[in-house]
Fold:
Amino acid sequence: AQSVTQLGSHVSVSEGALVLLRCNYSSSVPPYLFWYVQYPNQGLQLLLKYTSAATLVKGINGFEAEFKKSETSFHLTKPSAHMSDAAEYFCAVTPAGGSRLTFGEGTQLTVNP
Amino acid sequence: DGGITQSPKYLFRKEGQNVTLSCEQNLNHDAMYWYRQDPGQGLRLIYYSQIVNDFQKGDIAEGYSVSREKKESFPLTVTSAQKNPTAFYLCASRILAGGPHNEQFFGPGTRLTVL
Structure:
């Protein structure tokens, strides 16, 4: 079964600092991977997704993620944090041929002024 | 504008009562999903449907029921058999053509509180 692990349930950065949110997946075959963002009391919004077309994926709001098969990782980064980036971030995986997503437990990002 | 609507946004229920959460989409998506979200546990799949009049159990289906009589609608009923129903419920949909890399689109959610 597919699973995804997000290291760090809470991450705190200063405004302007690098954001790094970690995601590792378990799969014998490279899956499809997604990063979503959720603001308080709202639904999830897609940031970016990996579909095997390119290992470095650029998303919205300046975020990007790199798929590393050797490390089974899909970490999310942003060079310079903004106050508006404060939210909860979810990594999700679905296998090739699958029809459902498996979500990580989420990482709450705090941005300090 | 196309999207997913969930109603109501907040719902209060007395113990022992059934309650139905609404989810409607006008995106012409084939598949629809219901998730439950609790703090620190991510999203857990309750039920999903890929075609009208058919649906599958997810990981935590006990105490819930669904129907899919129309492509655009996928209501979720939380029954009195659900032991701890207080949670944030999210509905999602996606198009199936093209494969599993198509992302799910989410509604704004319904917060259910059992009094």
In short: Chain A touches chain B through 26 residues (CB under 8 Å). The first strand of chain A starts at residue 3 and ends at 5.
